[in-house]
Amino acid sequence: MKAIRIETTGGPEVMKLVDAEVGKPGAGQVRVRQTAIGLNYIDTYHRTGLYPVPLPSGLGLEAAGVVEELGEGVTSLKPGDRIAYGTGPIGAYADMRNLPANRLVKLPDAISDETAAGMMLKGMTARYLLRATYVVKPGDTILLHAAAGGVGLIMSQWAKALGATVIGTVGSDAKAEIARAHGCDHVINYSTEDTVKRLRELTNGKGVPVVYDGVGKDTLMVSLDCLSPRGMFVSFGNASGPVPPLDMLLLSAKGSLYATRPTLMAYTASDADLQDTARDLVDIVASGKVKIPVNQRYALADVVQAHRDLESRKTTGTTVLTP
């Protein structure tokens, strides 16, 4: 097999394409030939050490492929089944690997391998954020930062399907057009507009009941200032850097606010929660209500450039690596 490995943390250049062996799948495992691999911001956190992993390590949590061999005790899958996964185990940057069968999701014919590889982690993130962390209801108005990003484009479409009004923030006019095309009712270009002022205008001064913030350091205070009293600040990413320590008295002063830092892993810790989350995602994508825009493609061997482009905000929507 070919796989990406890191021996130390650091910039994109620490990733190396290496040859490795894949043994027989163990009990409860299947061997998967991977056809498409998803690129996600969390991969950069593992690479830099922001989210520590034991070294040396592979990278990547999301991919799609075909089952080739079953380990002992596996009855839920068979050779030839198309599958995808979005919660690891880490090491998705590879053309073949052994995986726990209970963490895999079968794919219907309506969803391609490339779409699946780009939707599992980001789409299941969108699902728990919209349906569990804060349950979006018809008539809600929500604020979504980085609305033209991979999670953002899925969330905006899904929130619209739930009957919400979606306000998104982006950093350029080009990204604003992409966000509008994927469900945003209003788009704020933070490079040219005052986000808080514009949001207050759009909500008649009320603010919003929830802000979904995957940006982190740069948007903390903006997010808090956009919330209505007793609103919820949902911090689920660090694209601009880790969120600084939060003074709890700020939550009181700004209207008895709630703040949470959820993770997909916690919301899919049990096999039942994982399958429920994945089923909702597969159903809404298969229905056509949520489309997965695969806007960038790189060979696995070009993953260094892919990370550079992701971190410099040159990408939109979903990025897929091909083995």
Automatic annotation (TrEMBL):
TM region positions: none
One Pfam assignment: ADH_zinc_N
Protein name listed in UniProt: Quinone oxidoreductase
Organism: Aestuariivirga litoralis
An example molecular function term from Gene Ontology annotations: NADPH binding
Protein's UniProt keywords contain NADP: yes
Enoyl reductase (ER) domain boundaries: 10-321
Any one GO CC term of the record: cytosol
Keyword line: NADP, Oxidoreductase
